[in-house]
């Protein structure tokens, strides 16, 4: 321990802390009261509005909810499967395309041009259109070796579409590394490739985690688009039940499942972003 | 026999001509300081020497071999220089040990055990033995710059290039970095450095070069440059340094 004066809390400081604590309690109680009042008011308004019974029966039918839940949940397993297969593929495609676009060798010019063309094309074309083209167009070619399995086709389409976005995320991450880091590595004698591998990419990877997770939250939702080529997943399953019963509660079931999947990832992304901010501040 | 020979070096960035035909020779074990105002071309000259910048004209020879030849192997040339920057430029995602051993292992093909042993010896020699496992952001500026110097030394360079290595440090930390450079001189290291620390420059240099507007205006032993400079511009620069209290 270092010697020196010892702090004895002054009366003035004790008084200040007492005032701050009472102010804090006041803030909490005001927030609680106002929230309760707001929710109660909103509830009263909704339940007393003339259309409420119809809304309740169409979207919030408990019996329908229980009837639809097992089938929709089973369909949802397909969404999760597509998501889990597509995600690593997208990361690989994105990283490879980003690296190709960063090369400078004249021999690689055609590959580089191809990578640029790919990114421009698939960022411009709506994901739904890509899914339709791959899902219906590829099998229509009747070529040998083209997969007929709808899940596979869905994964291919999503990978093509999202790979272009993720490539740009990686590229912006790579470009965000300060040139002085490259100068330091190159002046140690490291080649362009080794500089990328040991110095630039490890730092870039850390910076792109948050934007990448954002893209994956969006990918989780977009697995529902694969229903358009006839794959029976959560959305399709809900649609089937709804068309039989004219009750829309199954859609609510599907929505809840998607929300349950995306919220943890979204919160985790927020957590990582906040941590990165704290680190930068320290 | 000169280690480094710079002949009639020109460099411009757009319309801004930064070096105007600089000639310089550096012998083995010689310490050469480049002084001059900001923008006089000191840093650019260093960056041209290790080929971070491509000169517009002129030649640079290292041990008799022309490194400004477009067919020269840039990575092989840089292997023989150790460069230290004003802003340290340590790799933030690596420990001190990994920062130091990266080039020996990846460029010079030294085994991990040997590279780490040599790094430990260097860290001990410069009073940083306990920092091997630390990340750069846990070190003070002076410690970071000492690690950066060790990182450059670990490749056993022919020539050290030190670019304003104390400019980003507060006075307490300048001292510890300057002590290292003194020790390097005693060990016989050939060095080119740019600096604003005039008393240090006077103390350590064998040759002092004054650059003004991209021209190497005056060159000589420190006693001569600092006491009886030939050029009016040199005198003006030195008296402004004196006035700012940096001498």
From TrEMBL, chain A:
In terms of InterPro entries, this protein maps to:
AA_ABC_transptr_permease_3TM, ArtM/GltK/GlnP/TcyL/YhdX-like, MetI-like, MetI-like_sf
Protein family membership:
Belongs to the binding-protein-dependent transport system permease family. HisMQ subfamily.
Record's bilayer topology term: Multi-pass membrane protein
Q: Which UniProt keywords apply?
A: Amino-acid transport, Cell membrane, Membrane, Transmembrane, Transmembrane helix, Transport
Q: What is this protein called?
A: Amino acid ABC transporter permease
- Residues passing through the membrane, by range: 28-47, 76-100, 121-141, 251-269
Q: Where in the cell is it found?
A: Cell membrane
| One Pfam family this sequence matches | BPD_transp_1
Domain (ABC transmembrane type-1): give its ranges. Answer: 76-269
| UniProt xrefs under PROSITE patterns | ABC_TM1
């Amino acid at each position: 321990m270092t010697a020196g004066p010892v702090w004895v809390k002054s009366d003035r400081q004790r008084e200040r802390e007492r005032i701050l604590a009472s102010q804090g309690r006041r803030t909490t109680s005001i927030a609680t009261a106002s929230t309760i009042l707001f929710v109660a008011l909103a509830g009263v308004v909704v339940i007393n509005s003339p259309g409420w019974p119809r809304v309740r029966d169409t979207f919030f039918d408990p019996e329908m909810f229980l009837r639809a839940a097992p089938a929709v949940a089973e369909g949802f397993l397909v969404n999760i499967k597509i998501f889990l297969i597509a995600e690593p593929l997208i990361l690989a495609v994105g990283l490879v395309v980003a690296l190709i676009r960063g090369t400078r060798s004249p021999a690689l010019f055609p590959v580089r041009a191809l990578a640029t063309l790919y990114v421009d094309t698939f960022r411009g074309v709506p994901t739904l259109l890509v899914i339709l083209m791959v899902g219906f167009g590829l099998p229509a070619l009747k070529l040998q070796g083209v997969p007929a399995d709808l899940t596979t086709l869905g994964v291919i389409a999503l990978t093509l579409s999202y790979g272009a976005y993720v490539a740009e995320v990686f590229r912006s991450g790579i470009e965000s590394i300060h040139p002085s880091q490259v100068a330091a590595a190159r002046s140690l004698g490291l080649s362009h490739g080794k500089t990328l591998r040991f110095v630039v990419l490890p730092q870039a990877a850390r910076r792109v985690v948050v934007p990448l997770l954002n893209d994956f939250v969006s990918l989780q939702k977009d697995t529902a688009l694969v229903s358009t080529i006839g794959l029976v997943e959560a959305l399709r399953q809900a649609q089937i039940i709804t068309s039989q019963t004219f009750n829309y509660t199954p859609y609510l079931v599907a929505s809840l499942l998607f929300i349950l999947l995306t919220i943890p990832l979204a919160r985790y992304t927020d957590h990582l972003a906040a941590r990165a901010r704290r680190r930068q501040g320290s | 026999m000169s280690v480094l020979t710079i002949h009639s070096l020109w460099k411009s960035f757009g319309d801004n001509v930064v070096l105007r035909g600089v000639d310089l020779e550096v012998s083995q074990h010689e310490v050469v300081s480049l002084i001059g105002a900001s923008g006089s071309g000191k840093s650019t000259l260093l960056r041209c020497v290790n080929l971070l910048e491509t000169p517009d004209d002129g030649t640079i020879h290292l041990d008799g071999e022309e490194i400004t030849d477009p067919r020269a192997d840039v990575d092989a040339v840089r292997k023989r220089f150790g460069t230290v920057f004003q802003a340290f430029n340590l790799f933030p995602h690596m420990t001190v040990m990994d920062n130091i051993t990266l080039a020996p292992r990846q460029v010079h093909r030294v085994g991990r055990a040997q590279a780490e042993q040599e790094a430990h010896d260097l860290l001990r020699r410069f009073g940083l033995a306990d920092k091997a496992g630390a990340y750069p952001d846990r070190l003070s500026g002076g410690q970071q710059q000492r690690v950066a110097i060790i990182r450059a030394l670990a490749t056993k360079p022919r020539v050290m290039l030190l670019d304003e290595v104390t400019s980003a440090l507060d006075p307490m930390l300048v001292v510890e970095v300057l002590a290292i450079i003194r020790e390097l001189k005693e060990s016989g290291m050939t060095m080119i450095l740019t600096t604003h620390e005039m008393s240090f420059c006077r103390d350590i240099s064998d040759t002092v070069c004054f650059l003004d507007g991209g021209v190497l205006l005056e060159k000589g032993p420190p006693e001569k440059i600092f006491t009886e400079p030939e050029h009016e511009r040199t005198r003006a620069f030195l008296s402004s340094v004196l006035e700012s209290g940096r001498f």
